[in-house]
Task: structure prediction
Amino acid sequence: MGTAIEVRDLRKTYGDFTAVDGIDLDVEEGEILAFLGPNGAGKTTTIEILEGYRPRDGGRVSVLGEDPATAPLSWRERIGIVLQESEPVPELTASESLTMQAAYYANPRDPAEVLGIVGLADSADQRTRKLSGGQKRRLDLALALVGNPDLVFLDEPTTGFDPSARRESWQMIDALRRLGSTVLLTTHYMDEAEYLADRIVVIAAGVIVARGTADDLARQVGAVTRISWRPTGSADVPAGLGVSRQGELAVIETDSVVPTLAELTGWAMGSGTDLADLQVARPTLEDVYLTLTSGRSEVGETDTGPASPSRPGQVPG
Ligand code: ATP
Result:
């Protein structure tokens, strides 16, 4: 697998305001990468540069092997974009919209197949003005997919969805993985990032503050897993497990979950102790994200997170 997106030291300023302050970013072919960050962090600016819609002030960018600033029209055909908001032509049916869009591409997917992928097969002949909000969002995704793109940009694809529509969208986005597309996704929903993304990159105030899997990020901020149970017998838990009492619960906080559980359950079996109400609570991505981004709402604010030797608060690529 090659690299679909390679960004080095990307910079963008608006007047004297630095929106993107020298970021590095790699997205491998076939992966789903979630790009997270607070409002105003620089996500849209970065993505618009990658899409070729916004000029940059510095750095190197390669998207599907081309510099977006100078890429030919044939490059644009390999990219699908789902914007935060869009308005389909109201008088066309869903099927007509896709057929029209497909005509712009040299190697499109079959519109009927794409309607099936996004779960709109039953609404193929519905005029788009009659589609519900969730159905319009599916059509947006279908319009991005019908050109058979190698790379799809999804900007907050499920904002405003009800919980079941979000879950259905996740299945659609998962389907892109099976089709072999590379996906760069922005979202403010941590559960969405955790469910969909192979890797997560967190940007705050124009710099990358963390990158890796959800577990990598948790380790980076020192987040621990909490194992708890309600003691019922009199047998003493091995001292090495570091058990504390919190109310009526016995609690172990650890970043070494499997060995700790093995030792705990081994002891429980051996001593005939029931680990009543046993719970294993991993740190949520939301907790980790809030730790990573706290105090970083403005460019130039004090760094509170993990530091790299080269740039405070930025993690190496
Ligand atoms: P959100 O999650 O709210 O969409 P974002 O991470 O996508 O935020 P950007 O839209 O990239 O953030 O904006 C980064 C910063 O640059 C913000 O402070 C924003 O106000 C500023 N900015 C964005 N576009 C412009 C512009 N055209 N002119 C001046 N400032 C801009």
